[in-house]
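Dear support,

I submitted the protein below through the web form. The confirmation email said the job was done, but the results page showed an empty box. After a refresh the structure appeared. I'm attaching both so you can tell me whether what I see now is the final result or a partial one.
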Amino acid sequence: MRIALIAPPFITVPPKLYGGTELFIAKLAEGLDRLGLEVIVYTNGESTIGVEKRWLYPKEQWPLSGDIHDNLKDLNHTAWAVRDAAESCEVIHLNNAAGVACSRFVDCPFVFTVHHPHEPGLSEYYAFYPEVNFVTISHFQRTREKMPRIRTIHHGLDLSLYEYHPKPKQYLSFLGRIAPIKGTDLAIAIAKKAGIPLKIAGEVQPMFRKYFDSQIKPHLDGKFIEYIGEADLETKNELLGNSLALLFPIQWEEPFGLVMIEAMACGTPVLAFPGGSVAEVVRPGVSGFISPSVDELVQHARDIESEISRSVVRQYVEENFALEQMVRSYADLYEEIAGGKAVRSQTKDERAIA
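What the results page shows now:
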């Protein structure tokens, strides 16, 4: 079976730093390749994904300015990719909303993974495309939508890339966009009240520069509250793996929260506010705790080493959010909607032997 995975054109696949959707596409592509499916990733020319890639735009472009020309670039890239993929692929898998409109012109099964939270305007738009197979990344997200063809497939991680740390250092961590909806300021408040240092990593997007300058920067002293910038995989392993807990005090309905399972993969529990998918990802008393109360999370932060076993946290993520589970679920979906036309190609190991 030949699958087209269409990414937005703005961030490399895999991402160098920020890019949850692009990380998902990279790991899905590699996993499908290992299963024996042929994969083409439509991205930009700077991408380094280890499967066949095609591109219209040679360079990545991030962060975006918000200009109308960025939207047109996204649409132009996606329309070209859909047209190209329709010539040789049995399933086209989209990851940007603009691409859904292109499904109207191509006689091919389409999958669209909904990476964003529920937005009424987008849901109204999706309703015009009942033949598209929509995938939500949490059960909570699915309950907000009404498309006729919809299922949930949770994200999964290549756990071999995340180092298990049995003994943490004495600090808390925050990893994510520095934005009000992510609750970076609340993470600082929790750390200060708990009396435990906090290390913050994440992108400061232009639209949230004022928030960073007014709500975050005044607290940074390089010691108790430290901002370390954006984080690549090596930095994530060190930051998350050595921390007592990841703070996840979100202020929105989180669609999934990939960073939560990245922390768990290192053996690090998560202390989170409720919202969206959090209750599906964090199992209280096993992989962390969920509470709307700052004071309760403060107490858990102080007692986390006695409350949670880091080896159990790692086991929990292995059992529930391994990459292989996610990849197999998507492969099953592709086979289902391809209508029996697809024949499995050789796996990567079989091709090597041949």
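Response: this is the final, complete result; the empty box was a page-load delay. The chain has a mean pLDDT of 93.
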